[in-house]
Amino acid sequence: MLLDNISSPADLKNLSFDQLVSLAGEIREGLFNRLTKKGGHFGPNFGFVEATIALHFVFDSPKDKIVFDVSHQCYPHKMLTGRAYGFFDETQFSKISGYSNPDESEHDFFKVGHTSTAVSLACGLAKARDLKCQNENIIAVLGDGSLSGGEALEALDFAGEQNSNFIVVLNDNDMSIAENHGGIYKNLKELRESNGKCASNIFKSFGLDYIYVDKGNDIPSLIEAFQKVKNIDHPIVVHINTLKGCGYKPAEENKELWHWTAPFNRQTAERPVSNAENYNSMTAEFLLKKMAADSTVAFVCPAVPANFGFTKQNREKAGKQFIDTGIAEEHAIALVSAMAKKGTKPVFGTHSSFIQRTYDQLSQDLCINKNPATLLVNTASVWGMNDITHLGIFDIPLMSNIPELVYLAPTNCEEYFAMLDWSIEQNKFPVAIRMPCNGIIHTTEPVQKDYSDLNKYKITQNGSKIAILALGDFFQLGEKTADYIEQQSGQKPTLINPRYITGLDKELLTELKKTHEKIITLEDGILDGGFGQKIASFYGSSPVKVYNFGLKKEFLDRYNAQEVLKNNHLTPEQIWQDIKN
Amino acid sequence: MLLDNISSPADLKNLSFDQLVSLAGEIREGLFNRLTKKGGHFGPNFGFVEATIALHFVFDSPKDKIVFDVSHQCYPHKMLTGRAYGFFDETQFSKISGYSNPDESEHDFFKVGHTSTAVSLACGLAKARDLKCQNENIIAVLGDGSLSGGEALEALDFAGEQNSNFIVVLNDNDMSIAENHGGIYKNLKELRESNGKCASNIFKSFGLDYIYVDKGNDIPSLIEAFQKVKNIDHPIVVHINTLKGCGYKPAEENKELWHWTAPFNRQTAERPVSNAENYNSMTAEFLLKKMAADSTVAFVCPAVPANFGFTKQNREKAGKQFIDTGIAEEHAIALVSAMAKKGTKPVFGTHSSFIQRTYDQLSQDLCINKNPATLLVNTASVWGMNDITHLGIFDIPLMSNIPELVYLAPTNCEEYFAMLDWSIEQNKFPVAIRMPCNGIIHTTEPVQKDYSDLNKYKITQNGSKIAILALGDFFQLGEKTADYIEQQSGQKPTLINPRYITGLDKELLTELKKTHEKIITLEDGILDGGFGQKIASFYGSSPVKVYNFGLKKEFLDRYNAQEVLKNNHLTPEQIWQDIKN
């Protein structure tokens, strides 16, 4: 195998074009091997094999620096930079991450997993190069989907004013995760259709030079283009037209499905399908019913529709009541705020990790204006996504300290949908809901329908001495802990479902003082700036002892949830151990 | 006066063009009256008088909806919508805010003060209109400076795909607060110079229709253009070329100085100049010295250079070591992260209120990558800016709960510069510094130079029973409180300067338990998610009592700092009263 003799990109330089084409085949075999067995990003990597080979053939990494946007297309790059073992050797899969990672290689410069950051980061490398009077090439690799994100557009504007070497490779496969949305994409289409020659050119209007490569999966064409721009003395965009999923027919034909894949059968393209209930499809089903009954209900989603059950079919059902903003989280929050202001009923949804983009919009556009939009926060949990760039454990400190926001933590399926229904129909508060992430847990107890009497916690079990405030996804841990403590101590603890992350039930907390000596708080997120610390502060001057349980403030990476829970003393046994003395 | 008969825009409709011109004169008189006496945004309002008149002449507010970006150009709009008293009657100045405000008028739709939000908010109104099958005009008014902000660009992209009425008025005065930065501005210049006819057109490349009005301060030209686009069935940009500060020569000639003004003398254009020391100019002076000694030191600032002492003269002195990203806070954080990665020494600076834009970049681009950039956070205090949209009291919960960030709170001038110097020269941590905001306080005590031994608090007075942890700007309140308590109780309390917002000195806190019964924490920001609650959590299970003092989680507006402090029990007397029992 050619790859056996490539330990760094320097080893590519002497290969013939034919050998480079064979190399592309080998890289795809590596991708198949890892992705069929472990899963991961499929379409982006298959589409960018040739471009990666051409980049490393022309440029001199790591002196020349390639920064990947999102970096979910960097698997071929990993194979050419000494990490082929992570693809061909199943025992070593876990040694490499699914994203660029400077801990793995000197050819990676940043840990990246969010979109739209590469141009900014590359601008910083270029600025530093210029301040140090050095002269390497700086290359940002950006997908067309990422182009709509504010940070990418800000950076292109900045780049357009610079006067030194800077190369943006726009990997245009005409897809985001789902289809693209936004006016920019009409321009990209025009550019593709005119072979880069149409008058209107977004990159030129940002002040950047521009060339177009129609055959974005053809190594010689790409090499020619990259050689043309190597050592250029000003910023330029190399717009390459690639095929997402290139080299695997099912993926070329259904790009959305094959953006990311679980392990699958290469021959049949089949993946294990789960028919189990899940919150994504249940949420879509619920919202579609609301939409059918009320034409002012709308679901607004920045580019992750399927993660809320809005598959292509459901998007079509929703019609104009489904709005994909493209990757544009900031815009989406302001959008729903204004929609709510004008009396419609917008529901916004994204992941805990991506809502991080919107603090200012949550505060300024939404909460200062107190507009009654609903926000769904998905995978907000230790059981959410577990890459360092996709953690769902920071949204409580991020969001719950913003005035006027009502942030709700449902503890089971029925409570989640009751809260969602209430939020859509009320017109007083901006409301966010932390979607459950610990499996579908049903209750047969009656569930409250109206949550407008803010910050009323619910006692689900009356006891004494010890009270457990078990928030959201950790309510079941609270139940188990209550049982365990009763078993061990013979004393029944009080169990409370706080429901509201954003406020204290001071009346109930004051009442608890009379008959309780110890308060345990449990929350599915980091402790710093979170829920439990507010309870500790409330009881700070009283004799009541407070024990906050949750996660340590740290960037976890590719963790095992059970281990993390144990390390943070989040089992009933450990909790009892910690508090009993 | 014509204005006397205008209680709403409807009253404008029957005026002749000549009368409209007179009206513009009257509006400028109102602006002069308020701004000479009270100060406020000057250039944006003077430049937008004619456009405001034309908008209200053509469109039917409040049915047609005008959304102002930043809304620092909405004073003329306020005068035409029943609020002229707020400009002509000094006793009523304080009844109106300096920004759009739905509490004041049905012609204002949002409380807005940050840039780049208008297109998004207007898109939301348009979407809601379409869902409700209504048909009014939706107009976003956007300044050229705001155009570079990610949220605005995301929104333009979104708007470019819509198929219904939507009008963006681009108020192009060729200035941000300071000069514009970014490639987009080359295109705006081309458009102005070609009378809107050049081939490259950023708005068309975003999918929007476009017309250009060269005489942006000429009422008939503006009316003609607005009439052309009224009731249009698709999105369009009306690009108007206005003169910032139009109607006052000194402001036309020095646009940066007259963006905002303190009260001034209309005849002489003089303002009271303070020669007192201030942190802005001292910071610039310090950084310029560092830059002169080391060509890899750079100051990166998103469009607020003067607020860090980088006046035009100092920007020229700094040369390529000063980088204005334009309004692009997200990009700026990623930029400095990458600059630090490549071994240069970037310092970023903006206001507490604007750093809110960057949570995701702080977390992903900077802290996950642990790059040693320095961030300066200005007006982060109850003594900072006091409009609801510009509060500086939320940055501690926002920033201090991000892993890996070292957030420092200096307590005096010497400590601030020592921290800044250390941060620039170290290469281990991303560091943010909360710039002092309570006046220039000097110390004669020796100040620590090295802060790399993280989270070591400093005992500045040894005492017993009571310990006061007084963070940053509230350290002097801590000193006063310590004195007062000693006076009242005869017992000297311990006084501690925590210095580090982002971590606990567990050793010291544990030691305190032995000889102290009560811990007081003081912080200049909201309590929720902040510093004190972490201390309360630390002591939660111990007999030590903790009393957290700081601000309530709320959106304050145009407040008096002394009153707010009192309402939050932040005087030595109140603190003693609260803790003595």
Automatic annotation (TrEMBL), chains A, B:
<dbReference type="Pfam" id="PF02779">
    <property type="entry name" value="Transket_pyr"/>
</dbReference>
<feature type="domain" description="Transketolase-like pyrimidine-binding">
    <location>
        <begin position="277"/>
        <end position="443"/>
    </location>
</feature>
<keyword id="KW-0460">Magnesium</keyword>
<dbReference type="GO" id="GO:0046872">
    <property type="term" value="F:metal ion binding"/>
</dbReference>
<keyword id="KW-0786">Thiamine pyrophosphate</keyword>
<dbReference type="GO" id="GO:0019288">
    <property type="term" value="P:isopentenyl diphosphate biosynthetic process, methylerythritol 4-phosphate pathway"/>
</dbReference>
<comment type="similarity">
    <text>Belongs to the transketolase family. DXPS subfamily.</text>
</comment>
<dbReference type="GO" id="GO:0016114">
    <property type="term" value="P:terpenoid biosynthetic process"/>
</dbReference>
<keyword id="KW-0479">Metal-binding</keyword>
<dbReference type="InterPro" id="IPR005475">
    <property type="entry name" value="Transketolase-like_Pyr-bd"/>
</dbReference>
<dbReference type="InterPro" id="IPR029061">
    <property type="entry name" value="THDP-binding"/>
</dbReference>
<dbReference type="GO" id="GO:0008661">
    <property type="term" value="F:1-deoxy-D-xylulose-5-phosphate synthase activity"/>
</dbReference>
<comment type="subunit">
    <text>Homodimer.</text>
</comment>
<dbReference type="Pfam" id="PF02780">
    <property type="entry name" value="Transketolase_C"/>
</dbReference>
<dbReference type="InterPro" id="IPR009014">
    <property type="entry name" value="Transketo_C/PFOR_II"/>
</dbReference>
<dbReference type="InterPro" id="IPR005477">
    <property type="entry name" value="Dxylulose-5-P_synthase"/>
</dbReference>
<dbReference type="GO" id="GO:0005829">
    <property type="term" value="C:cytosol"/>
</dbReference>
<keyword id="KW-0414">Isoprene biosynthesis</keyword>
<dbReference type="Pfam" id="PF13292">
    <property type="entry name" value="DXP_synthase_N"/>
</dbReference>
<protein>
    <recommendedName>
        <fullName>1-deoxy-D-xylulose-5-phosphate synthase</fullName>
        <ecNumber>2.2.1.7</ecNumber>
    </recommendedName>
</protein>
<keyword id="KW-0784">Thiamine biosynthesis</keyword>
<dbReference type="GO" id="GO:0009228">
    <property type="term" value="P:thiamine biosynthetic process"/>
</dbReference>
<keyword id="KW-0808">Transferase</keyword>
<dbReference type="InterPro" id="IPR033248">
    <property type="entry name" value="Transketolase_C"/>
</dbReference>
<comment type="pathway">
    <text>Metabolic intermediate biosynthesis; 1-deoxy-D-xylulose 5-phosphate biosynthesis; 1-deoxy-D-xylulose 5-phosphate from D-glyceraldehyde 3-phosphate and pyruvate: step 1/1.</text>
</comment>
